[in-house]
Amino acid sequence: MYRSPKYSFFDMKEIKPSGWLRDVLLNQARGLSGNLDKIWPDVKDSKWIGGSREGWERVPYWLDGFIPLAHLLDDEDMISRSDKYIDAIVSSQRSDGWICPCSDGERENYDVWAAFLICKVLALYGGKKGFEAARNALKNLSIHIKSHPLKGWGKFRWFECLIPIYLLYEATREEWLIELASELQKQGESYDFLLNNPAFKVPHEKWNFEGHIVNLAMMLKSRALASQITGGDDYSFAESAYGFLMEYHSSIPTHFNGDEVLAGNSPTRGAELCSVVEAMYSYEILFGITGDTVWLDRLEDTAFNSLPAFFTNDMWAHQYDQMANQIACVAFKTGSPFTTNSPDAHIFGLEPNYGCCTANMGQGWPKLALSSFMKYDKGILSAVPVPATLDTEFDGVKVNISLETGYPFRKSLKYAVKAEKPVVFELGIRIPECVEYALIDGHLAVPGGIYTLHRLWEGETVIEVSFDFDFELTGAPDDMFTLRYGPLFYSLPIEYDAVMQEYEKNGVERKFPYCDYELYPKSDWSFAFAGDEFEAEDREFSGYPFSDKNPPVIVKAKMKKIDWGYDENFEYLCSRAPQDRTPVGETAEKTLFPYGCTKLRITVIPMV
Predict the structure, then answer these.
(1) Which of 13, 184, 491, 590 has the largest count of CB atoms under 10 Å?
(2) Rounded mean pLDDT of 407-434?
(3) Tally: H helices and E strands in the chain
């Protein structure tokens, strides 16, 4: 028996970003993600649209972020460009429903992960035409996997296909869809091997599907999705798996390390960009199914800290791997500190190391915007408190809810609720766990929960929320610490010189603005905390808020210089932990930036 999620998403045409969130999305649209169909061969000349370049996951990945981005911004040109891709994909679908761009002879060995992904895109965003194409493709898939069982990526990502299956089932109630979902679960990897397995408590030295960090980021939602048809537990496996990854493979409390595969808890190992955006999507889905707000707290931790730190200020370049303690972004000359990635995987560029993140990175911010408001049977929830407006209907009455806020950089929310005529519904306001206390129209609200207003809404109603943050030093490996203030983590920023590189490789041109950059440090970074007293200072800001040129808030900290030292194998890599913690100078006041506003940084820091 199919079980609907507790909360579900509004249509992308019902939500409009505002304030700083709109500035971020505009920046993305003007940057790399918004222009891949113009400049990057794997999208511009893809087999999906009749070209000769990559015809597997990259166009579906790109569309998964580009389509909602276009509609959230009401950008007619972007909408038209995305429609051309959808039209080309649908028009080339075979008569039997097969949708991926390969010959009949190639189907036998085809990894159907790409089919899962394009069906998800078509069902989520493709309109009536895309919806029907997804249905036909899934019908074909239900026949195909009987004689060609799942393998490779499809076997490890089977649950991603449940998303379009459930969307179609909710619309059609066709039982063959549930049968397909059950068969995919039977053939797919269960991930039972992960928990309490000593082999997965340590960094992996060789590439493998089981320890692949993007697979694991996606995996977090697998059991919860399956529970919608099995009726089983929708929570405990995700919580246990998340706890396992964070205990053994994290250096900061925002995300787990994986430079392609599980990478342990060193702050000088990497986290792959794909894993960050996929973890965010898992958290969004997990909240919808379970209703537990802890997943939204984890979503915020990742979205406001890890995600923006991957990009240059203009969002024309990104990293593949991101380090918590990142003192340079320079191609290493003596090998690679990453497990299976190249020595330049952490530089900022068009497609450092591998192009999957170039295609996939665009889903992060648009899907966060689509999670700002969510719906349930009794009303509307303000799930992620970012500036946005919702235009929808409840019981046939037009309702408009706008949220004006500078959160996570500021400490207040202002809602305006407008109803075309009197209507009764619940408005839930989620209070993040990271705040110290919250007041909603003067009434105390519990952090980490949902404050519900059940009333008759008539005309316009204004609701004001205020809260406060406190500083928190969180323990990290090797007797070091990370500093948190509300929803943001803070780092000691390192000034740098950016060296632009323009060249061509494998037929792909890098030229400004879609070129590569190496970042060389030019300020000292060998410091330790010299006390636990900190002072926050708000700064005026406008435009893109995660710039390292003008962060919206800073923190003043007392620090002392120490002899940190370098990794013995790499010139531009600091040692995992300081070689000597003895202070070598007087206490100095240093300015810390939000993690997401830094390019070079020290984040995991000792106390002296």
Answers:
(1) 491
(2) 98
(3) 17, 25
